[in-house]
Amino acid sequence: MIKVNLGGCSTFVEDAQYNESVGKALAAFDTLVAGNGAGNDFLGWKHLPSQTPESLIADCEAVRDGWKAKGVDLVVVIGIGGSYLGARCAIEALSHNFARQLGGKKAAAEVVFAGNNLSEEYLAELLDLVAERNVACIVISKSGTTTEPAVAFRIVKEYIEKNYQDASERIVAITDAKKGALKTLSTQEGYRTFVVPDNVGGRFSVLTPVGLLPIIVAGFDARAMLAGAAEMEKVLSERSAENPAVKYAAMRNLLYSKLGKKIEVLVTYNPKFQYLGEWWKQLYGESEGKDLKGIFPASVNFTTDLHSVGQFIQDGDRVLFETVVHVEKANRSVVIGTDEQNLDQLNYLAGKHVEHCNAMAELGTKLAHIDGGVPQVEISIEKIDARNLGGLFYFFEFACGVSAYQLGVNPFNQPGVEAYKKNMFALLHKPGYESQAAELEARLK
Ligand code: PA5
After folding, report:
1. What single string gives the DSSP state of each residue in 81-95?
2. Has 340 been annotated as catalytic?
C-alpha cells in the first residue's frame, strides 16, 4: 500500500554506502521489534492498529451520537503537540476544502482546535464563535498539566457551565488513567473520560482516543483508518531490506551522516496535506532532535511553496533533502476547457485534468531539484482517504522508531521541551518557581 522509491537519491549515494546503512537500519529494526532499546516503556503504539477493541470505537461513536442528539454543531478540541496534531491532520486531510463555506445540512459537528497556543486574540475569537453555536468540548492532555490546553479549557469550561445546564455532558476528557490535574477535575465534575495509555507518548497517540474521538466526532471513518494502519503494521513487521520503513530510515540516516543533509523537507502536492507536514514535523523533530543530533524537519506544500521557498530548495545552501508524499490518484476530477480566443494561451492543456498538470509539476520539480543537488525520497500512497492515512500514520511512526534508534537516540522522550516551560513558569511566578524569576527578569533587561 505504501511504496518507498529511492531512485531520486541514486546519483548522490553509492550502493555500498546504502547497503551499509540498511544493515544499521535492520539492527535498529531488531531493537524496536524486540522492545529492548531506550524508552522501551513507550512502545504501546506498535500494536494499536491490530489490538484496538471494537468497543473503543463504539464508545467514541456513542459520544458523537449523544452530542448529535443534543444538536451540538461545534466541538472544540483542546490539546497541544501530540494531543492535537494527529486529529487535526486527519480531519484536514479528509474534509472538503470548503466545507464551512458550503454550509448546508451537516451530518457531523464542525471541529475546531484550541489550547495549541497562548494567543489571547485566538481565545477571544473562539468565544465569539461558540456564542453563535451549540457547543461541546473534548479536552486532551496526557499529563493533564500542560499550560496551553489548561488555560483554554478553563475559559471554554466556564463558557459551557454558564450557558448549558447539562455542562458536564458536553465535556469529554482524554487523559491519564490515574494521575494529573485533568483526571482529578474530570472525576470531580463527572466528565466522561477516555484514557491515553501509559505506554503511548503524545506524538505516537493518533490511533488512541486522542486521535480517534475527534476524528469520529468530525464524521470520519476511524475503522477504515485503523484497518489501513493494521495492514501497514503487518507489512512493516517483516524483517527485510525491502521493508519500506527500513528503506526510509536507512536512506535518511545516510543522507544525514555521509552527505551532511541536516534538513529534511516533507513535500506534499495537495493543500489537504498541510497538517500532515505539521504532524510529521513533531513526530520526527521531538523523537530525533536531541543529544546534539538529528535532522531538522521542515515541510512545504507544492506547487504553492514553489513560488516562495522553492528558490531556496533549488539554489540555496545544499543542506537539505526532500521526502515527497506522492498521491497516485486524485479523488475528484476537473478538466480544463477549450477557449476559442485562447488569450491565456492555455489551449494546449484543453481536455487535460488539473491533476495531470499537478503530476507534471511534481515530476518537473523532482528532476529540477535533483539537478540542483537535492536528493529525493518518494513515499507513495494510492489516494487520500482514511485507510491510506491510517497506513501513512503507522508507517511514519514505525520508521521514526527505526530511524531514531539508527541515529542512536531515544525516540520516545522529549527532555528539551521542558526548558521553555521552566522559564515561563518562573516569569509567570508560578508557585514553586518564584526563586528563578528575578534572575530571568534581570537577563531580559
Ligand atoms: O509528544 C509529546 O509527548 C508532546 O508533544 C505532548 O503531546 C504535548 O506536549 C502535550 O502534552 P500533554 O498531552 O501532556 O498535554
Report:
1. GGGTHHHHHHHHHHS
2. no
Count of residues making up the chain? 445
Q: Which residues pair with 298 in a beta bridge?
A: 265
Is the pLDDT score of 104 beyond 80? Answer: no
**Which ligand 1 atom is at minimum distance from the Cα of 196?**
13
Q: Count other Cβ atoms within 10 Å, centred on residue 122.
A: 15
Which candidate in 110, 231, 278, 286 is catalytic? 286
C-alpha cell at 338: 477549450
Distance CA 156, CA 380 (A): 40
Contacts of residues 21-25 at CB distance under 8 Å and 24 or more positions apart, as own/partner, are 21/250, 21/251, 21/253, 21/254, 21/406, 22/241, 22/246, 22/247, 22/250, 24/250, 24/253, 24/406, 25/246, 25/247, 25/249, 25/250, 25/253, 25/402, 25/403, 25/406
Q: Please write the tens of the pLDDT for every residue from 282-300.
A: 999 999 999 999 999 999 9
Cell numbers found for residue 42: 513507550
Q: 336 C-alpha vs ligand 1 centroid, how far in Å?
A: 45
373 ligand 1 Cβ < 6 A: no
**What confidence tier does 106 reach under pLDDT thresholds 50, 70, 90?**
confident
- What is the arrangement of strands in the sheet containing 320-327, beginning at the earlier edge strand? 3-8, 376-381, 320-327, 263-268, 296-301
Respond yes or no: is residue 369 known to be catalytic.
no
* pLDDT at position 62 over 90: yes
DSSP state letters, 208-275: SHHHHHHHHHTT--HHHHHHHHHHHHHHHTS-STT-HHHHHHHHHHHHHHHH---EEEEEESSGGGHH
- Based on the residue annotation, tell me whether 47 is a catalytic residue of this protein: no
| CA separation for the pair 4, 431 (Å, rounded) | 51
First to last CA, the chain: 56
pLDDT at residue number 107: 80
Q: Using only C-alpha atoms, what is the Rg of the chain?
A: 23
pLDDT digits over 309-364, tens only? 999 999 999 999 999 999 999 999 999 999 999 999 999 999 999 999 999 999 99
Q: Does residue 83's CB lie within 6 angstroms of at least one atom of ligand 1?
A: yes
* Digit-coded pLDDT (tens) for 192-212: 999 999 999 999 999 999 999
Q: Alpha-carbon distance 37 to 351, whole Å?
A: 55
Ligand 1 site-directed mutation target among 143, 193, 213, 410, most atoms within 8 Å of CB: 143
pLDDT at 225: 98
Burial class (CB in 10 A: 0-12, 13-18, 19+), 435: exposed
